[in-house]
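Appendix B. One record, verbatim.
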Amino acid sequence: MEISSMQLFSRLIVILSAFAMTACVTTSDPLPSWNDGQTKTNIITFVTKITDKNSVDFVPKEERIATFDNDGTLWSEQPYYFQLAFAFHQVKLMADKHPEWKTTEPFKSVLADDMKGVMASGEKGLLQIVSATHSGMTAEEFEKSVYDWSTTATHPTTGKLFTSMVYQPMLELLQYLRANDFKTFIVSGGGVDFMRVFTEQIYGIPPEQVVGSEIDSQFKLIDGIPTILREPKLLFVDDKAGKPIGIYRHIGRRPIFAAGNSDGDLAMLEYTTISRGPDDKSLRFGLLVHHTDAVREWAYDRDSKIGKLDLGLDEAPKQGWTLVNMKNEWKVIYPTAK
C-alpha cells in the first residue's frame, strides 16, 4: 500500500513525540523545564493528592479532565494569532482567482503585507478574511491546506515554523498529567478544524479532544462520495463565556484542571475551580501563563490587543489560581533553542 507524504510525516512525528515524552516520564523530575519553586510545587502537590487513593482529595481516573487554551498557553500568539497567519497566507494563494481583492479591503492590505491596514479593518475585516479562506471547500481540501501551511510556514520574526513555537514546559505538563491518567483537552477560541490537523502530532491530543470555534458545514454525496462541505457561516465562538459552553457540549464533564493565559480564559477557569456550594469540596487547579519574557518570547499583559491579561492578573490571587511567570519559572521556552 502506498503511503502519502502526509502519513509518513504524521507517523514520524508521533514516534518522535512518544520517544521524547517517554524520556520525560522516566526522569525523576516530571517537569524538567520548570524551575524549582512554588508553581512547580503546586502542580506536583495537586497531582499527588488527587491520584492518592488514601487522600481525601482523591479523584477517580474517569473524572481527571484537564482543559488547555491553545494560543498563548500551548504555543505563542504574537504579533497576531497563528491562525490569522494561515488565513493571510491563503489570501495570497487564492488572489489570482479574486482580482477584486487587489482593490478591496481588507484583502488589499493583506496582499500588500500592510498589517496595520489589516488590523484597522477590525473584527469585521478579520472575519471576512477567515470566511473567504476557511469555507467554500471540502473538509479534506481545508485539511490539506492547513497541513501544507503547518509544515512550511515560518514566523515573521523568529524564522521558526509556527508549529515549532510550542512551549516545552507545557508539553511536559501535558505528558505529566496524562501519565497520571488525565484526559487532556484543548479548549480554544481558534478554529476547531484548523487545530485538529496538527494537535495530535505536536501535543499528543487527538482531534476528538479538541474544542474550538466552528463554522457551519453540510453533508452531500458528490459523485457517490460522502463529502463534508464547509460553509461561510460562523456557528459557535469558543471564547470567554463560550468556553464553559463548549466544555459542557463536547466534553460532558467539568474539568478539575484548567490552563489559560488571557482574560478570554477566565470563564473556563471560573467554571473549573469555583465551588458550587458547601458540599463541593473537590480539589481543583487553575493556571494562567503570564508572558513576562521579552527576550526569549514576548512580554505583554494588561494593554495587549492579543492575549490581553488584565482581569486575570487581579483574579488569580483572589481565586487561588497559579500564575506562571514565564521569565522566572521556565528554563526554556521552545523545544529546541535556535
